[in-house]
């Protein structure tokens, strides 16, 4: 009886060892299913990639392999792409890990032709921000000084992105901030843009004086998206650090009233959702 038990144990251990050394195998197509988006503006286009690679999600080793895949642009520089450019997306992966897992790799590169990028705006734009129960704030935007910023803002405004959003942060004596779809300072649009200010290598002489409109951002210089702020009072410490792109010529009494009326939750100017002034619309037209 003891001998029989030993044989059964040996077989069990042996089968366990065989299971540990087996390779999951399978085929991984690295680029056919990825989603490639070219965003930005003509001559300033950037590549965004969503990794929709199909694989056996039940295997943790294969999940880790796919998670480690990096996509790079083989030709052309990100942030400089123009309509008509032909670019190649290349998937960088661990060949040794693929071999260990017994994977067959297909289509490590993908060619994409750039199209659909809008031209950067130039000149000056008249902008009207309609705030519910308050009225109109009218601004003049300067696309000659901040073409990327103005092009992004005007595009979002005229497609209705800002309609129904709010001013979620208000600090009297400093500024009012809005344009976040989340209403709490964490959201934005589909793309971020290059920060057009001196500290980021862009000559922008606009100062953060009362009435100036500028782009909010995180610590990253190129993280501005849809959030903007309007200066309530002069704040020179922001000069050269944020992308100012225009100035109010009417409606600063509305900014004053918002700063006076709206109750904030803390010293950072947080406004509860129910108290946030609503942006009914933002419209922008070129000044001829």
UniProtKB/TrEMBL annotation:
Matching PROSITE patterns: CSA_PPIASE_1 (PS00170), CSA_PPIASE_2 (PS50072), PROKAR_LIPOPROTEIN (PS51257)
Signal peptide start-end: 1-18
Keywords tagged on the record: Isomerase, Rotamase, Signal
Alphabetical list of Pfam families matching this protein: Pro_isomerase
Coiled-coil spans in chain: none
InterPro entries attached to this UniProt entry: Cyclophilin-type_PPIase_CS (IPR020892), Cyclophilin-type_PPIase_dom (IPR002130), Cyclophilin_A-like (IPR044666)
Keyword Mitochondrion appears in the UniProt entry: no
One Gene Ontology term from the biological process aspect of the record: protein folding
EC top class, as a word: isomerase
Domain PPIase cyclophilin-type: 124-258
EC number from the UniProt entry: 5.2.1.8
GO molecular function: peptidyl-prolyl cis-trans isomerase activity
Keyword Signal recorded: yes
PANTHER family with a match to the protein in the record: PEPTIDYL-PROLYL CIS-TRANS ISOMERASE-RELATED (PTHR45625), PEPTIDYLPROLYL ISOMERASE DOMAIN AND WD REPEAT-CONTAINING PROTEIN 1 (PTHR45625:SF4)
Record's protein name: peptidylprolyl isomerase
Organism: Catenibacterium mitsuokai
């Amino acid at each position: 009886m003891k001998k029989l038990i030993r044989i059964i144990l040996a077989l069990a251990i042996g089968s366990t060892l065989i299971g540990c050394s087996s390779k999951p195998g399978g085929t991984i197509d690295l680029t056919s299913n990825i989603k490639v988006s070219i965003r930005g503006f003509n001559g300033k286009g950037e590549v965004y990639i969503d990794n929709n690679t199909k694989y056996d999600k039940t295997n943790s080793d294969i999940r880790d392999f796919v998670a480690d895949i990096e996509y790079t642009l083989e030709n052309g520089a990100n942030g400089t792409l123009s309509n008509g450019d032909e670019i190649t997306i290349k998937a960088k992966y661990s060949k040794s890990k693929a071999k260990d897992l017994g994977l067959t790799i297909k289509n490590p590169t993908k060619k994409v032709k750039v199209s659909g990028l809008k031209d950067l705006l130039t000149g000056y734009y008249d902008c009207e921000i309609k705030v519910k129960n308050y009225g109109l704030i009218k601004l003049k935007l300067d696309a000659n000084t901040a073409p990327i910023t103005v092009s992004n803002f005007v595009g979002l405004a005229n497609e209705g992105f800002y309609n129904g959003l709010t001013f979620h942060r208000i600090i009297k004596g400093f500024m009012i901030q809005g344009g976040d779809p989340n209403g709490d300072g964490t959201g934005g649009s589909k793309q971020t843009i290059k920060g057009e200010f001196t500290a980021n290598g862009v000559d922008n002489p606009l100062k953060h004086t009362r009435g100036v409109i500028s782009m909010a951002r995180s610590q990253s210089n190129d993280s501005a998206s849809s959030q903007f702020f309007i200066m309530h009072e002069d704040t020179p410490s922001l000069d050269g650090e944020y992308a100012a792109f225009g100035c109010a010529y009417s409606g600063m009494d509305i900014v004053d009233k918002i700063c006076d009326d709206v109750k904030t939750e803390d010293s950072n100017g947080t406004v509860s959702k129910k108290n946030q002034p609503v942006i009914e619309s933002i419209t922008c037209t070129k000044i001829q």
